[in-house]
From TrEMBL:
InterPro entries: cNMP-bd_dom (IPR000595), cNMP-bd_dom_sf (IPR018490), Env_Response_Regulators (IPR050397), HTH_CRP (IPR012318), RmlC-like_jellyroll (IPR014710), WH_DNA-bd_sf (IPR036390). Pfam families: cNMP_binding (PF00027), HTH_Crp_2 (PF13545). This is Cyclic nucleotide-binding protein. Keywords: DNA-binding, Transcription, Transcription regulation. The keyword Repressor does not apply. The lineage of its organism: Bacteria, Bacillati, Actinomycetota, Actinomycetes, Pseudonocardiales. It comes from Amycolatopsis azurea DSM 43854.
Amino acid sequence: MTGSATDEPGGFGAWRRLSPAEQSALRSAGHVKVWRPGQILALQGSPPTSMFVVLHGWVKISATNYRGEDAPLAARGPAEIVGELAPISGLPRSATMSAIDEVHTLVVPKDKFLGVLRDRPRIAEEIFRNAAIRLQQSDRLRLESGGPDFPQRLAAVLVELALQHAVDWTNEEQVVLRFNQGELAGFARVSRSTLIRGLEELRRLGVVHTARQRVTITHPRALRELAAGRPPPDDKT
């Protein structure tokens, strides 16, 4: 396993927006580590000792609220930089990061990471830009999860999750969302039984396909139409 993420399909992560020299600087400051499915990369409330670049596989971001309920926040895939803000702020981790499947990451210790940012400020600019995009996506996801018509609301939630997966997502590209039913219910703020009924309706309309731990958006343009409260086109292309 090398430190490159460029051969891994999917996503338009911040890592790919860095120049080869900037990527090299981060590689030189860190090391590659492999995580088994379910293994925790970093725990909510723990000291921010490092940041991560996802080279292969998928990482789930989740947090526990004051009532002790675990809520999914996002899934990050290849070429995404994760856990980078806590080392910058110096505050404890605000979320837990765990491996969904086998995950390969570049791990950069906090002190070396901060040193790279001082030497190469454009990396810091890209990280803050990425954080701003994620904040906007998170706000939009909370907004969409409150609509009155559930199939439309679920379609909108899936659209926003797809945009988290790939900022430059288009109407033509299928997207695989690696969440289980409990996690999707958490995003949509409904019970699992309500979520299952909503997914059945979207499957009936032919816009998604479901399997264990994933939902595939098979007809993105049609899903966007549903999210906007319009019937999907008959040809679903």
